[in-house]
Amino acid sequence: MIRVLLVDDQPLLRSGFRALLDLEDDIVVVAEASDGEQGLALVREHLPDIVLIDIRMPVLDGIEATRRIAADPALAGVHVVILTNYGLDEYVYDALRAGAAGFLVKDIVPEDFLHAVRVAARGDALLAPSITRKLIDRYVTRPPGAGTGAGLEELTNREREAVALVAQGLSNEQIADHMVISPLTAKTHVNRAMTKLRCRDRAQLVVLAYESGLVAPHTS
Known about the structure:
By secondary structure, this protein is of the alpha/beta class. 49% of the residues lie in helices and 13% in strands. The termini are far apart.
């Protein structure tokens, strides 16, 4: 059962998302919150698998709430998915850097919304190749920052290759096909890279890959 917490200051939107989720046999909404501070308290109380959180809210916004969740070892199993009305803007990139597993635009169709919740619950990033390219084009086409490559020297060549493919938006199955290995081996390479680079999830791995210069923007 996938446990979901909804955090949004618009009651109508929360009700709409909850109505969709409540119809699914494998998903349960454990609580709702109207601001980030209340949401953070409920995350600690319920330990959900997924937090769907609005990026702009009163009291505590979604980015800071995400940062606090990501920094708390007790919440390591919680995956944050940012909800936004604004598409790909600088706030979304800040949220990914803060530790979000991905983001969804609020006008998403119901089928894609439910699929996204299940993808995030598996620990996969909600970053399709087209979104990854836009992210790179708009926010990661600057020179690597000082210190952003820390830990890269610990990666094996195969782990580096796997990270580069993750940064292009490929799934474990696609990485396996590209590297001519099994999906389980591909997943192992990705997981080891995340551990060595101290990334919570694939979304942070994508950001680090481009900011460190491991992958150049023109290669996606």
